[in-house]
Amino acid sequence: MTARQRTWAIAVGVAAVVVLAAGGFAAVKAQDLPPGTTLAGEPVGDPDAAVETAERIGQRLLSMPVVVATGEERAEVTAGALGVSFDVQGVARAAENATGFDDWLARVSGGDATVLPVGLFFTTGDTDELAERLSSDPTDGDIEITASGLRVSDAVVGIDVTPAMISEGFRTAVAALETMPFAEWPASLQVQLEAESVQPRITQVSVDAAVERIESLTDTPITLQAQAVPEDSQTVDGVGVPLRETIDVELGEQALIQLLAVEQDPDEIERQRLRIVPSAEQPPPALTAFLERAAIGPLPRIRVEDRSPTPTKDPLPDPGSGGPADNPAYGDVSTVTGRLVSEVGEPGLDPDLDATVEAIVAAMEADQPTAEVQGEEVTDPVDPAELGIVAPVSTWTTFYEPGQGRVTNIHRIAEIVDGMLVPPGGNLDINHAVGERTREGGFVEAGAILEGEFIDDVGGGVSQFGTTFFNAMWFSGIDIITHTPHSFWFDRYPAGREATIDYPGVDLELNNNTPHWILVDTAVTDDSVTVTFWSTPWFEVETTMGPREQTAEGFRMSISRIATPQEGNVDTDTFRIDYKLP
Q1: How confident is the model at residue 85 (pLDDT cuts 50, 70, 90)?
Q2: Which Pfam family, any one, appears in the UniProt record (predicted)?
């Protein structure tokens, strides 16, 4: 075929196609859109169908659930609520434009099928409320200390979600729908946001550090110590009041925890934003009970000034069974006068709970095993009348020859016992109160009796003080617990009313069975020693003596004391004594 012939053939073919296309266009003119036209993968035959399909897709889009998540927080809304719409009008225009001859010609000429554009447009959605729902404020960690232990509140990190963040994430998710066939659209859109964390002021690091600190402080018990009067004390010491002893209580982990509090300090470094401080808001019962025991008054020291003169020696010319020393004038309490002066021997303590708690916590922090009760010293002198010490209730005087070594010992023991106080129900034990008689204690060697033998001993002669003291006991009416008569009778003592003492086994002890305190007042001269008890008169005392019965070595006698109290039962003591004559 020549070139001319080929050119003619092409022209004929093109004309045929045009004729066919024109004929086909005329035949399908009612369908409007070229065959195979789609919208989001959905076939559409004409613009009306395209609009209907667009509206159907748009409704699906508006109602599509959108799950917006930030880690564990999730919220569900519709796409329409977030401000997206399907561009139906844009689809209608595109469909109208796709009905022309050129589109048909391209299609019948073997071109690609027409794809109508998926048009989405965004409006301002309600993202503010959603951002608020998804956001959360941080929560400060904290520790509350209760009677049952620690109540720990963990710190919670907050989340800051902004409307712009939601809009951006939503648009990214929706954009994928523009190229996705409608039939493959997901049931819901998933929008995962990378929200910004908001740290609390008191972080979990702060909480954990505080818990660790509390556990470290309380893992070792603390022994709290104080001075107190023993609950069962019947003994006196020093100035004569009940002994003070060291008491203690062990505070374990739970008790120590209750003495702490936690305070927030956000300006500190992270590990120290919860400060552990002392707190007396909820003290454990063991501590409050202990402080009650530690509350003690001052040790009073009471003395007699401007005392009336002691009796002079005046033996009875016609002595009875008691001998020449049994002169009622030596025990005439009506002649005793004086002025009571009160001082503080040792301060008392008014415990301070707050200060004590601070001391305990300081010991915890210093890793020390003990702490002392803290408080204010009580230094106000006690009014003797408040103790019932108002007047002399008994007295006795014995005599000796001046200048002897035994006089030194009598003066020394009288000095030690002077001013001793015996509380109601308390005991006064001479050996315990005075202690061993030693040279270091101011005693000297002098004559004494040991197991019936005359010897020289340090402290010899103190038995004369014992006799003088015993007579004051006798006429006061108070309870005689222990006394030992001499084996020999000396006429400087009243027969039957005398007592010997020797450390440690031969003792002299009384019990104050009155409701009032007793003050022991002593006085010495060159030739006499006097013991006077000051208190409130409580007993009326009557003494009866039996006749002396001669024995091979001396004589035997009996003596009785009848003590009649203001309240209670009459007390009668009877003693039978065998004496040797020196």
Answers
A1: confident
A2: VanW
pLDDT, tens digit (0-9, with 9 covering 90-100), for 54-72: 899 989 998 999 999 988 7
**b/e map 183-210, b = 16+ CB within 10 Å:** eebeeebebebebeeeebbbbeebbbbb
pLDDT at 16: 36
Q: Which of 5-14, 161-170, 229-238 has the highest mean pLDDT?
A: 161-170
Whole-angstrom Cα distance, residue 279 to residue 144?
12
Q: Using CA atoms of 461, 463, 469, 475 in order, give the dihedral in degrees to the nearest 10.
A: -130
521 within 8 A of 418, measured Cβ to Cβ: yes
pLDDT at 319: 74
**Mean pLDDT score, 200-211:** 96
Gap between the Cα atoms of 254 and 106, Å rounded:
91
For 506, residues 6+ apart whose C-beta sits below 8 A from its C-beta are: 431, 484, 500
State the helix-helix crossing angle for 163-175 and 127-134, rounded to 10 degrees. 110
Distance, CA of 270 to CA of 114 (rounded, Å): 65
Please identify which residue in the block is written with the tokens 């659930």: 65
Q: Order of strands across the sheet with 427-429? A: 427-429, 509-511, 479-482
Query: How far is the C-alpha of 400 from the C-alpha of 485, rounded, in Å?
Result: 18
DSSP-assigned letters across all residues of 371-415? EE--EEEE-PPPPGGGGT--EEEEEEEEE--TT-HHHHHHHHHHH
CB contact at 8 A, 418 and 522: yes
The full DSSP string for 510-567 is: EE--SSS-EEEEEEE-SSEEEEEEEE---EEEEEEEPPPEE-SSEEEEEEEEEEEESS
d(CA 397, CA 524): 9
Whether 427 contacts 236, CB under 8 Å: yes
Instruction: Quote the Cα angle for 404-405-410, to 5°.
Output: 95
Residue reference for tokens 């109208």: 96
Q: Whole-prediction pTM value?
A: 0.64
Read off the tokens for 155. Answer: 């710190």
Strands 421-422 and 115-116: unpaired
Burial class (CB in 10 A: 0-12, 13-18, 19+), 269: exposed
Interval 367-423: pLDDT, tens = 999 999 999 999 989 899 999 999 999 999 999 999 888 999 999 999 999 999 998
- Burial class from Cβ neighbours inside 10 Å (0-12, 13-18, 19+) for residue 356 reads buried
Yes or no: say if 86 and 54 are a contact pair by the CB < 8 Å rule.
Answer: yes
Percent of the chain's residues with pLDDT above 90: 63
User: Sheet harboring 42-43: ordered strands across?
Assistant: 42-43, 38-39, 115-116
Helix axes 88-97 and 47-63, enclosed angle (nearest 10): 160
Query: Would you say how long the chain is, in residues?
Result: 582
Domains in the chain: boundaries? 1-30, 32-129+166-186, 206-298+347-376, 299-343+383-537
Burial 426-447 (b: 16+ CB within 10 A, else e): bbbbbbbbbeebeeeeebbbbe
Q: Where are the alpha helices (DSSP H) in 306-460?
A: 353-365, 405-417, 430-434
Place 242 in a pLDDT band, splitting at 50, 70 and 90.
low
